[in-house]
From TrEMBL:
<protein>
    <recommendedName>
        <fullName>Cytochrome b5 heme-binding domain-containing protein</fullName>
    </recommendedName>
</protein>
<dbReference type="InterPro" id="IPR012171">
    <property type="entry name" value="Fatty_acid_desaturase"/>
</dbReference>
<comment type="pathway">
    <text>Lipid metabolism; polyunsaturated fatty acid biosynthesis.</text>
</comment>
<dbReference type="GO" id="GO:0005789">
    <property type="term" value="C:endoplasmic reticulum membrane"/>
</dbReference>
<keyword id="KW-0444">Lipid biosynthesis</keyword>
<dbReference type="Pfam" id="PF00487">
    <property type="entry name" value="FA_desaturase"/>
</dbReference>
<keyword id="KW-0812">Transmembrane</keyword>
<keyword id="KW-0443">Lipid metabolism</keyword>
<keyword id="KW-0472">Membrane</keyword>
<keyword id="KW-1133">Transmembrane helix</keyword>
<feature type="transmembrane region" description="Helical">
    <location>
        <begin position="131"/>
        <end position="152"/>
    </location>
</feature>
<keyword id="KW-0276">Fatty acid metabolism</keyword>
<feature type="domain" description="Cytochrome b5 heme-binding">
    <location>
        <begin position="19"/>
        <end position="96"/>
    </location>
</feature>
<dbReference type="InterPro" id="IPR001199">
    <property type="entry name" value="Cyt_B5-like_heme/steroid-bd"/>
</dbReference>
<keyword id="KW-0275">Fatty acid biosynthesis</keyword>
<dbReference type="GO" id="GO:0006636">
    <property type="term" value="P:unsaturated fatty acid biosynthetic process"/>
</dbReference>
<dbReference type="InterPro" id="IPR005804">
    <property type="entry name" value="FA_desaturase_dom"/>
</dbReference>
Length: 250
């Protein structure tokens, strides 16, 4: 999770005084990969041409085509003033005055409760990370990695040394997995770029995996959690049955 400004990131400017207005019925028709509209804070954006350049991947936007993306937008963007520079050219209109802020089938009270909860935890500074904790976490990982290599250098590759090194690296890799998760969520530093740098170091250099690959999949998981088949973590068909019935895409 990350902290965000209480003020709306989309203040009305003089140039927005004559925006086109749309109903949800019209917006929801633009829900295809080649035609994607979405709503953020009652503003309507055409993201069709932007989708391939979206840093979080095309599929995150496709999953919200024709829908309200206000809360998930705030959850995954730290620096709203920077993101607004990219949103402004995509703005095509706003919801008509009589339209609800979310799609009509959504539970408006549930959405309101969630937004109030976010305001509460922001006021309690629960999105402020303890950098000392994360520094010690990273130090532990690096010490274990270095110790494993020094052990190999000093004592060779006999079977008992190999088992000891495997034990050290198992702990290190598991801890790297937890730490890269927090960095990938942009949850450690206030600036996105520092989170991205730490994430790339942990994933690409310590774990030997693609940070971008992980982000593209994990972002989908959080924007559409447990919604089949949009959440890639729910696609366990060949291996596990989750629930009483095998899910299928209609």
């Amino acid at each position: 999770g990350q902290g965000a400004s209480e003020a709306s990131p989309h203040p009305r400017s003089a140039g927005e005084s004559h925006l086109n207005t749309y109903t949800w019925q019209e917006i929801q028709r633009h829900n295809q990969q080649a035609d994607q509209w979405l709503v953020i804070n009652r503003k309507v954006y055409d993201v069709t041409g932007w989708a391939d350049r979206h840093p979080g991947g095309r599929r995150v936007l496709t999953h919200y085509a024709g829908e309200d993306a206000t809360d998930v937008f705030r959850a995954v963007h730290l620096e709203l003033d920077v993101v607004q520079l990219y949103l402004k050219p995509l703005l095509i209109g706003e919801l008509a005055p009589g339209e609800p802020s979310q799609e009509r089938h959504k539970n408006s009270q549930l959405v309101k409760d969630f937004q109030e909860l976010r305001k509460t935890v922001e006021a309690m500074n629960m999105f402020d990370a303890n950098l000392g904790f994360f520094f010690l976490h990273l130090a532990q990982i690096l010490i274990l990695e270095v110790l494993a290599w020094l052990t190999l250098y000093q004592f060779g590759s006999s079977w008992h040394v190999t088992i000891f090194i495997a034990f050290l690296l198992t702990i290190s890799q598991a801890q790297s997995g937890f730490l890269q998760h927090d960095a990938g969520h942009l949850s450690i530093f206030k600036k996105s770029k520092w989170n991205h740098l730490l994430h790339k170091f942990l994933m690409c250099h310590l774990k030997g995996l693609s940070g971008t690959w992980w982000n593209y999949g994990h972002f989908q998981h959080h924007v559409k959690t447990n919604i089949y088949p949009k959440d890639p973590d729910s696609k366990l068909g060949p291996y596990f049955l989750v629930g009483d019935l095998q899910p299928k895409c209609s």
